[in-house]
Every structure is written in C-alpha cells, then in structure tokens.
C-alpha cells in the first residue's frame, strides 16, 4: 500500500506565509537595530512614578526589601513624610519554618538602619499576598486617616500596574496616592535587555499587565 501523500498548500497560502515571515524578519531586524532607542521606551511605558515630594506617609510594597525600604527611608530622612507604612506579608514556607524572618521584620530593620525611628513605622494588620491585597490594606488604613496622602514605593516597572490596582481598589481615594520608584540591583531601564533576568522581569510584568487588562 502506498503511503498517503500530503497535499501542498495552495500558492496563495504559501505566498501569505512568506509575507508573514518576511514581515517578522523585518520587525526583528528593526527592533535589533533600534534597540538602544526602542527598548528603553518599553521600560519607560511601565514607569509612571513621580519624583519624591511631600506626602503624609510612604508605603513600602513587599517583594523588594533590598531596595524599596531604602527609598522610603531616604524620603523620610529628607523630611518629606512623617511615617512609613509597612504591610505584613504572607508567610512563605521557609519563614514558617523559622529559616528567615518575616518580610516586614526585614523591612523594619532596614528602616531602622537608615535612621527611621520605630515610632514612625506603621505595620499594618493582616497578611497580604499580592499588590491588590496591599491596596486593600491601605484602604483600611485610610478609613482611619481619610485625609492622608500616601506615596507608594515599588519597583519602577511595577508602578503602572500597581497604580491601576490601587485606583480600582481605592476609588476616589486614589487621587491622594502617588508612586515613587525604587531601582533594581543589576540592571536599569536603559540596559535591561542585556540580562536574562531583566528580560524575564519585563516580560513577566507585561504579561501581568495584559492579564489585568483582560480582567484576570
């Protein structure tokens, strides 16, 4: 018995495929040749932070205890805020096992090291495990401080999605919330594509932003 043969795609379909591959190749070439101009724009779109200015409180989001507390401490040290808000983060297994301290403890130690007194540090009740939960925790804090302004400290590429989450959670109160950017160790918005973890970080953030826009 002869083996069945696969019919070749029609000429029109083959031409269409060639056009698609040619367009993709042109796009890739343009992206590569213009990378020093285009790729910083990729990072710039995600950064909606403001330069540090006077606010009643700064809030340190979890997940960046190697940089974010130091930005908050610098803002406090400059006399731009009267207090630092720290959410309590859900316990990872290694924290539950006593191998590492809770993140809010690490953040508080960093703030102390940078000269922020304990009386100026406010650790929020409840445990949070996401940016949305942190926004909800801040909303509860603002119930008791309805006129307070807050500067949220997070990584620069996280500020756009964080702002969307806080706006949705806080409603009208979001008008009194702004975002201050914390740097990253190892790469910057101007060179992130040179590092595999930079590519992974920005790709993941764009994916999360897309999923948020789609309602997930």
Structure write-up:
This protein has 216 residues and is an alpha/beta fold. It has a domain at 57-182: Rossmann fold, CATH 3.40.50. The protein is built from eight helices and five strands. The chain has helices spanning 11-33, 35-46, 68-77, 93-96, 103-113, 131-144, 159-170, 196-213; strands at 57-60, 83-89, 121-128, 150-155, 177-182. The chain has a five-stranded parallel β-sheet, with helices on both faces. Helix 1 crosses helix 2 (35-46) and helix 6 packs across helix 7. The chain starts with 10 loop residues before the first helix and ends with a helix. The relative contact order is 0.15. The mean pLDDT is 87.
SSE order and pairing:
Blueprint: H1 11-33, H2 35-46, E1 57-60, H3 68-77, E2 83-89, H4 93-96, H5 103-113, E3 121-128, H6 131-144, E4 150-155, H7 159-170, E5 177-182, H8 196-213
Parallel strand pairs: 1-2, 1-4, 2-3, 4-5
What is the CATH C level class of the domain at 57-182, in words? Alpha Beta
Helicity level: 40-55%
* SSE order: HHEHEHHEHEHEH
How confident overall, as mean pLDDT?
A: 87
| Quantity of strands, as a count | 5
Q: Rough shape?
A: elongated
Q: Give the helix tally.
A: 8
Strand content: 5-15%
CATH fold-level topology of the domain at 57-182: Rossmann fold
CATH architecture of the domain at 57-182: 3-Layer(aba) Sandwich
Biggest beta-sheet profile = 5 strands, parallel
Broad structural category: alpha/beta
Instruction: Give the strand line-up of the largest sheet.
Output: 3-2-1-4-5
CATH superfamily of the domain at 57-182: HUPs
Rg over CA atoms: 23 Å
């Amino acid at each position: 018995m002869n083996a069945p043969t696969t019919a070749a795609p029609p000429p029109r379909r083959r031409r269409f495929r060639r056009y698609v591959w040619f367009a993709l190749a042109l796009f890739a070439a343009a992206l590569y040749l213009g990378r020093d101009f285009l790729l910083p724009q990729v990072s710039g779109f995600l950064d909606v932070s403001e330069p540090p200015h006077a606010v009643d409180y700064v809030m340190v989001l979890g997940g960046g205890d190697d940089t974010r507390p130091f930005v908050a401490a610098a803002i406090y040290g400059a006399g731009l805020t009267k207090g630092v808000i720290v959410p309590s983060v859900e316990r990872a297994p290694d924290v539950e096992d006593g191998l590492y301290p809770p993140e809010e403890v690490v953040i508080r130690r960093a703030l102390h090291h940078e000269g922020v007194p304990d009386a100026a540090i406010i650790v929020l009740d409840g445990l949070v495990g996401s940016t949305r939960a942190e926004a909800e925790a801040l909303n509860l804090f603002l119930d008791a401080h309805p006129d307070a302004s807050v500067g949220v400290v997070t990584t620069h590429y996280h500020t756009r999605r964080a702002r969307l989450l806080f706006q949705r959670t806080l409603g009208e109160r979001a008008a009194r919330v702004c975002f201050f950017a914390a740097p990253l160790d190892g790469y910057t918005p101007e060179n992130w594509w040179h590092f595999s973890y930079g590519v992974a970080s920005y790709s993941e953030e764009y994916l999360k932003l897309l999923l948020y826009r789609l309602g997930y």
